[in-house]
Write a structure and sequence with these properties.
The complex is a heterodimer of chains A (535) and B (321).
Chain A lengths: L2 H15 L5 H13 L22 E6 L16 H11 L4 E3 L5 E3 L2 E6 L5 E6 L13 H9 L11 H4 L2 E8 L2 E6 L6 H5 L26 E7 L3 E6 L13 E6 L3 H9 L5 E2 L7 H6 L3 E16 L9 H10 L2 H7 L6 E2 L22 H10 L5 E7 L7 H13 L3 E7 L5 H4 L6 E6 L5 H8 L13 H11 L4 H18 L2 E14 L2 E2 L8 H4 L2 H4 L1 E2 L2
Parallel strand pairs in A: 1-10, 1-11, 14-15
Antiparallel strand pairs in A: 2-3, 4-5, 5-7, 6-7, 8-9, 9-10, 11-17, 12-16, 12-17, 13-17, 18-19
Helix pairs in contact in A: 1-2, 9-11, 15-16
Chain B lengths: L1 H35 L4 H6 L5 H11 L5 H13 L12 H36 L4 H15 L2 H15 L15 H35 L2 H8 L4 H30 L2 H7 L4 H11 L2 H29 L8
Helix pairs in contact in B: 1-13, 5-6, 5-8, 5-10, 6-8, 7-8, 7-11, 8-10, 9-10, 10-13, 11-12, 12-13
Classes of the chains: A alpha+beta (535), B mainly alpha (321).
Chain lengths: 535, 321
């Protein structure tokens, strides 16, 4: 392929990432280049991608968030470590999220929903066995979900299972879930990594001792906070899967140590590559940087109960005053996609593509004038851990906004306790959101009136649409509702989204994988059964 | 001998008593400073699942809604009977810390076995050949390695021996499934780093202690009697410098148990320091308390031994004026 074409494609990819190009434009222009016969593979597509998976081999993963408190109780899981090794390796859910973001049956072969999305019938896949030889049946599913529903439950999935009124197991291969109110997204919710299916115990409860799941791997060894090793399950219920013989998860907290482990061949993959190390990995012939678009986004949140943020025009002025591409270039070194004051990620179902929010001092001034102000003073609370580069981003924002007569006073808060003492408490602060797999889930966690993470914003029309969309099983109607909601959030909402960021990993070229999902980290936590070793 | 050993015994007993009192104060300070830290176990563990309801349920389950003073005395009562309690995740603290403590002690012992004799020999050599090339060389290089932060020493060692030369693995992540040979092989780089860090301190102090004795009148006397310089160092100066040497060795041994967190993190060595960081991040108070007690006990214990050794080597210290 010619160098010139290569560079043109690279340039397009960069512009797409920075939000200077819409997806549609990108596709049109890049396919024009492809049609010119110029390119064999688009740069930016990970070199690990190869069509034919191979069997065998050991994959060693350098992750960083194992804890000595990790256990086999699924209610306690809170990290991608437990998610990818236990949920994605040893266990399964009723459903799984495919790399393209759609939801597919896993232990459930199929499901039907009654009108109103309140009552759901799941049919279990026949012939699935646990590692200890026991057959999977409906009671296992019921007990596994009820594990999180106990009144004193401390499970991380508590908010999800609260929507469940009851679970019935009318036959060995049928589970009926009745919700307190309709929710068309139930299958997505059931893909949550906490909701792994365990073997039921006689007399109630689940067996959390034997590490016996239905998953693609059996647990060979588990040293909490240090390492987890998995061995292939020969009786797995998916054809040919898993490809690997063994997977080892190794906890490496320090990012430089992680990079060294990759470069010296101690591991084949490292999670969360530091952006300062990107050029070092890109220069190497043996490793590649993997960027998976995610739901994760960095924002400045405003408490709309507090002046001046109670005025929608002031909020709009603040939104127009931020030069997002400047922040992405200088603070994130180009790693990130411009935000549009919409918390819904481009990879998400029901994402509504709107023209990018321009940086306009004139419009910012115009909206300030509408609010009856010449200038306005605000305190912006940040800390180094609010999101990566939050302090630098705030400093740039301060300069941008000053030109519009908005005086931002940067308040540096303590990093320790930021989420307890600043977020949701100070009226204007920087936030790092991991997102939620569905739009409904995202909205009901952070944006509907009284939602637990809502900083005071309330919009009657938004709440009304949320109720309508939730129980609606007609996709076209639902789409229309969600489009309107995203527009309301962008124009009236309480967040300024700075950027969406990728899951940024580094991976050795000997590792193979197909399309990689980004709704959750580590290929939607399913890398164990989806990845392979090429040589 | 009887006359000496008895006062030493009573001194040791009173020191142990003071040590226990220090442990009590340490546990009190740690407990209440952790409760001053913002955040809680529930919000740390639940992360982005921490809705107010889930946090409340977890705090109730762990008894965190009880007053802190009550929780402290409950913990103290159990600890006094040797029960360090269970971590907030439900595993006994000793199960959490036991294997980690073993790893830390292994690393510390191997390092100490090499470092202590080597440091004393090098210190004596420096003192004996004071002002000569070997003394200047060792003094300058140990000064340099003291001045470098330990993480930098660790990264340099890693860059040279793991990345460039590729003689040793960059990760010292030992596991119980590995055989002893592989464990030792993986521990080479952290041991080397620790040697560079602690040798300097001990060499310099040994040298200084011997030299300060060397300037006293009785050494002058020995020299006038015609003893060789080597004999003066070994027979006259060294025995009288044992006290200060013992205390610097004790300080470094305690450091090896409690202060090697940074090196553990850089080399991914599963020691007790990482366990404490993990616990502090999660606000897992029982584990933090146990770590603090272990570290404080190491300091107090080693210093006690050092004191006993200095008193045996210099009985005058038993009778302070």
């Amino acid at each position: 392929m010619s160098k010139l074409h290569h560079r043109q494609i690279d340039d397009l990819v960069t512009r797409l990432r920075r939000g200077q190009l819409s997806r549609r434009e990108f596709l049109a222009r890049s396919s024009a280049l492809l049609a010119a016969g110029a390119v064999a593979g688009i740069p930016g597509a990970a070199p690990g991608q190869a069509l034919e998976p191979k069997s065998g081999g050991l994959l060693r993963l350098g992750l960083h968030n194992a804890s000595q408190n990790d256990s086999l109780d699924p209610g306690t899981w809170s990290t991608s470590w437990t998610g990818a090794s236990f949920n994605g390796g040893v266990y399964n859910n009723l459903v799984e999220i495919m790399p393209d973001g759609s939801v597919a049956g896993d232990l459930a072969e199929s499901w039907e929903v009654e009108p109103g999305a309140k009552v759901w019938h799941f049919k279990l896949r026949p012939g699935v066995t646990f590692h200890n030889g026991k057959d999977l049946d409906a009671e296992d599913v019921r007990q596994s979900l009820e594990h999180h529903m106990k009144p004193d439950s401390t499970s991380g999935a508590r908010a999800i299972v609260q929507q469940i009124e009851k679970i019935d197991a009318p036959s060995a291969d049928t589970v009926v879930i009745t919700l307190t109110e309709g929710n068309a997204d139930l299958p997505y919710l059931l893909s949550d990594y906490h909701l792994s299916i365990y073997p039921a115990l006689q007399g109630g409860g689940i067996d959390m001792e034997s590490a016996s799941g239905t998953g693609s791997f059996t647990l060979e060894s588990f040293e909490p906070g240090i390492a987890t090793r998995l061995t292939r399950n020969p009786n797995y219920h998916k054809n040919n899967k898993p490809y690997l013989d063994e997977v080892e998860f190794i906890n490496i907290v320090d990012s430089s140590a992680r990079l060294n482990a990759l470069l010296t061949g101690e591991v084949d993959f490292i999670q969360d590559l530091d952006i300062r190390n990107v050029p070092m990995v890109e220069r190497s012939a043996d490793f590649a940087v993997q960027r998976i678009p995610s739901l994760r986004h960095f924002t400045f949140d405003m408490d709309t109960r507090v002046a001046p943020f109670d005025n929608p025009d002031v909020r709009l002025a603040l939104k127009y005053a931020l030069d997002r591409s400047d922040v992405i270039d200088k603070v994130f070194l180009g790693e990130g996609t411009q935000g549009n004051d919409n918390p819904v990620a481009p990879i998400q179902k029901f994402y509504h593509e709107m023209p990018a929010r321009e940086h306009s001092i004139d419009k910012a001034k115009e909206h300030l004038a509408k609010a009856g102000l010449n200038s306005v003073n605000v305190d912006l609370s940040v800390a180094e851990n609010a999101f990566f580069g939050a302090i630098d981003a705030a400093t740039l924002y301060q300069e941008h906004a000053a030109r519009a007569g908005i005086n931002i006073n940067i308040v540096r808060e303590a990093a320790d306790g930021y989420w307890e003492n600043v977020w949701l408490k100070k009226p204007f602060c920087a936030v790092d959101y991991f997102g939620r797999a569905t739009v409904d889930w995202l909205f009901s966690t952070s944006y509907t009136t009284g939602a637990p993470w809502n900083s005071g914003w309330s919009n009657a029309r938004f709440d009304e649409l949320h109720q309508l969309a939730r129980a609606e099983t007609d996709e076209a109607k639902r789409t229309a509702y969600y489009v309107e909601m995203q527009e309301i959030l962008r124009d009236d909402g309480n967040i300024i989204t700075v950027a969406f960021v990728d899951w940024r990993n580094a991976v050795a070229n000997r590792v193979g994988f197909g399309e990689v999902g980004g709704l959750m980290p580590l290929d939607n936590m399913r890398m164990c059964e989806r990845w392979w070793i090429k040589d | 001998m009887n006359k000496i050993s008895h006062p030493i015994l009573s001194m040791a007993v009173s020191r142990v008593g003071l040590g226990l009192l220090s442990l009590l104060i340490v546990s009190l300070v740690i407990f209440f400073s952790v409760s001053l830290l913002p955040g809680s176990y529930a919000s740390a563990i639940l992360g982005q699942n921490a809705t107010p309801e889930a946090v409340a349920a977890m705090e109730e389950k762990l008894g965190l809604n009880q007053p802190a003073i009550w929780r402290y005395f409950a913990w103290l009562g159990a600890a006094a009977t040797g029960d360090l309690g269970t971590s907030f995740a439900g595993r006994p603290v000793m199960t959490v810390l036991g294997p980690r403590l073993l790893n830390t002690i292994t690393l510390a012992s191997i390092t100490a076995l090499i470092a202590v004799p080597l440091a004393i020999v090098l210190g004596i050599v420096c003192a004996r050949f004071r002002g000569r090339f070997i003394d200047k060389f060792l003094s300058t290089s140990t000064l340099a390695s003291i001045s470098l932060p330990e993480f930098l020493v660790a990264y340099i060692v890693m860059m040279v021996f793991a990345v460039k030369l590729q003689w040793f693995p960059s990760m010292a992540g030992i596991r119980s499934s590995m055989d002893l040979g592989e464990q030792l092989y993986r521990m080479v780089l952290p041991i080397l780093t620790l040697l560079l860090v602690i040798l300097a301190h001990m060499v310099r102090n040994t040298r200084a202690a011997i030299l300060s004795v060397m300037s006293s009148p009785y050494v002058e006397m020995a020299r006038l009697q015609g003893e060789s310089e080597g004999r003066v160092v070994m027979r006259q100066a060294l025995p009288n410098a044992i006290g200060p040497i013992a205390s610097v060795v004790a300080l470094n041994l305690a450091y090896l148990i409690s202060g090697v967190v940074v090196i553990e993190v850089v080399f991914v060595y599963p020691g007790v320091g990482q366990a404490m960081i993990d616990a502090v991040r999660n606000r897992d108070v029982p584990v933090i308390q146990a770590c603090a007690l272990i570290f404080a006990a190491a300091y107090i214990g080693f210093n006690l031994i050092a004191d006993v050794i200095s008193i045996i080597s210099n009985p005058r210290l038993l009778h302070p004026r």
